[in-house]
């Protein structure tokens, strides 16, 4: 035990000691705040923003323009990061989860081999995918709808295979897309005009559409000028690069297939869906595929079938099938549609149209067995079943199950029914409106950093962690479209995104995305790396971002400064030019923004440093 009696000298030193300790604590606190703000020398990529400038978040010395120069980067003075080398040229069009060699090891039954089959961790590429020699920034929209550079997608097979159907033509150094399709060789416009005679396409009632087996997505391409946003998908198969062509045109599309697992979309997502000679066996598997369309089709939505078996009396010989077989197939489809509570609205020539009833009280006959309604949106890698997704409950025959939507564009900022009904935990009408205000502010800041945002230079945009879709809603215009990705480990808000009249998809960012390389112009990631930092390798996510980003495309990553410091350490070893800037509210906010541009480099260029690393 120490003595309780202190000497005079000890009493004199005690206030001084306390003062020194307090001073040191204050100094350490201020130093930590200064370093965390991004203004200190935590990282050479951090910007020293002049607080007196009115546009304090404009990023200096970072060019977003397309110029295709090959000027070498000046290396930072810190110890060099791990350098990610270029992949071998054979990986130029690498799609991690749809590669042919791996696909062929799976059963062909029910298209299982065309579903997603991702490489295990030890087989993932840790290199950067090169662009093909001669790669050029795509034509700006709307010219890109009709033309694409051959060097960007150097595959001519469809120009021969689909020549009569006017899918695509090769002219000089470009592809031309006349707007034709298998069931509309005279052009998508005339086809859509016929649909619009039955379906209210012109007034904003129909905004979101699904094209199953899309080809080069001409249906979706021509719907865009009518303010309808189509999600198109097709498998990676012998119709070489069809989805790649679609995205090169500036049209939303993903690699996908009707197989054994659910489509990666929420229930009640689409106002309209179509199959134009998609060759999906709608009458097979006890109607399972048609039941999946019913799941994603909004009450009151429309389904279009053009192609077999419709108009079988005219085409049975061309299709090399018997009259009896085709007649029986159409009868089965009619029966299934009626059991799903769909009403046939139109059949003329090659086209038949059904409309889904607005609620279960309107159904004329008993439906097949019902699925578990609690799991209607839990679909990632989940097996499809031959059951009907039940309608949400209603109190009257006139009420739209799940809630009635305003016409677009009013529905973009109206409170979505899922929020109004309290179906999204932690989100209220008020917090939804606050989120909209926040993203308008964020987008305004982004445009100061990069003045090309909101122009046709960035046509294909991805939001990797979309939340309620606020970023896409703030950016909404005819000049661009946004693929709103809701991570499978995040709150399930994708239904809200669709209710706003936007499109998106579920995805797990520990795996490759269902697209070709070089298909997006601008990638936005808000809080994504904080979400995944304890789940998978951050380098894998960054390498995947590089794969799907076009040369000279831009990236915006918004996250906590500690996480961004980990990200920038990896980015230093990539072929990106990157800078970190402060949050819009100032340097004391721990959230920062990393802005980057992917350098232009191609196969065989001095920057490729080609490697066979896998």
Automatic annotation (TrEMBL):
Record's signal peptide: none
GO cellular component: endosome; Golgi membrane; trans-Golgi network
Main location: membrane
E.C. designation(s): 2.1.1.-
Transmembrane segments: 16-34
Gene Ontology biological process terms in this record: methylation
SUPFAM superfamilies: S-adenosyl-L-methionine-dependent methyltransferases (SSF53335)
Keyword field: Glycoprotein, Golgi apparatus, Membrane, Methyltransferase, Signal-anchor, Transferase, Transmembrane, Transmembrane helix
Compartments in which it is found: Endomembrane system; Golgi apparatus membrane; Membrane
Molecular function as annotated in GO: methyltransferase activity
One Pfam family matching this protein: Methyltransf_29
Domain of life, per lineage: Eukaryota
Annotated membrane topology: Single-pass type II membrane protein; Single-pass membrane protein
Family statement drawn from the similarity comment of this UniProt entry: Belongs to the methyltransferase superfamily.
Protein name per its UniProtKB record: Methyltransferase
């Amino acid at each position: 035990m120490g003595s309780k009696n202190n000497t005079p000298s000890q009493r004199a030193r005690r206030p001084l000691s306390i003062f020194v300790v307090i001073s040191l604590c204050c100094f350490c606190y201020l130093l930590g705040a200064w370093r965390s703000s991004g203004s200190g020398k935590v990282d050479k990529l951090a910007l020293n923003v002049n607080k007196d400038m009115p546009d304090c978040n404009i990023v200096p010395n970072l060019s977003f323009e397309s110029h295709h120069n090959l000027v070498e980067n000046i290396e930072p003075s810190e110890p060099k990061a791990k350098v990610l080398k270029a992949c071998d040229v054979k990986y130029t069009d690498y799609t991690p989860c749809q590669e042919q060699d791996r696909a062929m090891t799976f059963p062909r039954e029910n298209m299982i081999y065309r579903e997603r089959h991702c490489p295990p961790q030890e087989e993932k590429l840790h290199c950067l995918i090169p662009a093909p020699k001669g790669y050029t920034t795509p034509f700006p929209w709307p010219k890109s709808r009709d033309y694409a550079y051959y060097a960007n997608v150097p595959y001519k097979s469809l120009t021969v295979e689909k020549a009569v159907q006017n899918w695509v033509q090769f002219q000089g150094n470009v592809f031309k897309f006349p707007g034709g399709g298998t069931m509309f060789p005279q052009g998508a416009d005339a086809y859509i005009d016929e649909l619009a005679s039955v379906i209210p396409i012109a007034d904003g009632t129909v905004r979101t559409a699904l094209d199953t087996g899309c080809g080069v997505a001409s249906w979706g391409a021509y719907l865009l000028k009518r303010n309808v946003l189509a999600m198109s998908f097709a498998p990676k198969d012998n119709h070489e690069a069809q989805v790649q062509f679609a995205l090169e045109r500036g049209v939303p599309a993903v690699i996908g297939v009707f197989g054994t697992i659910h489509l990666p979309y929420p229930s009640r997502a689409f106002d309209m869906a179509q199959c134009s000679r998609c060759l999906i066996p709608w009458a097979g598997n006890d109607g399972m595929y048609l039941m999946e369309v019913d799941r994603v089709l909004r009450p009151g939505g429309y389904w279009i079938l053009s192609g077999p078996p419709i108009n079988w009396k005219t085409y049975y010989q061309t299709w090399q099938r018997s009259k009896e077989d085709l007649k029986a197939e159409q009868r089965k489809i009619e029966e299934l549609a009626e059991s799903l509570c769909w009403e046939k609205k139109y059949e003329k020539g090659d086209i038949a149209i059904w409309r889904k009833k607005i609620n279960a009280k309107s159904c004329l006959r008993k439906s097949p067995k019902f699925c578990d309604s609690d799991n209607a949106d839990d679909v990632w890698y989940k097996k499809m079943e031959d059951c009907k997704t039940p309608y949400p409950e209603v109190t009257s025959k006139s009420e739209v199950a799940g809630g009635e939507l305003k016409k677009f564009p009013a529905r973009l900022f109206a409170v979505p029914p899922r929020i109004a009904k309290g179906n999204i935990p932690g989100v209220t009408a008020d917090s939804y409106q606050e989120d909209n205000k926040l993203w308008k502010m964020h987008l305004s800041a982004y445009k100061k950093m990069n003045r090309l945002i909101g122009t046709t230079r960035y046509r294909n945009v991805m939001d990797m962690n979309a939340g309620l879709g606020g970023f896409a809603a703030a950016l909404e215009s005819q000049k661009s479209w946004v693929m709103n990705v809701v991570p499978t480990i995040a709150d399930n808000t994708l239904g809200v995104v669709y209710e706003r009249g936007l499109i998106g998809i579920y995805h797990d960012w520990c795996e490759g995305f269902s697209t070709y390389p070089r298909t997006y112009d601008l990638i936005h990631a808000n809080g994504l790396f904080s979400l995944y930092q304890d789940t998978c390798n951050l380098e894998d996510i960054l390498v995947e971002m590089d794969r799907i980003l076009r040369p000279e495309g831009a990236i915006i990553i918004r996250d906590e400064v500690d996480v961004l410091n980990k990200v920038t350490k990896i980015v230093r070893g990539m072929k990106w030019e990157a800078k970190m800037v402060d949050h819009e509210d100032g340097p004391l906010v721990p959230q920062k923004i990393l802005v980057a541009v992917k350098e232009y480099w191609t196969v065989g260029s001095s920057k490729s440093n080609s490697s066979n690393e896998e």
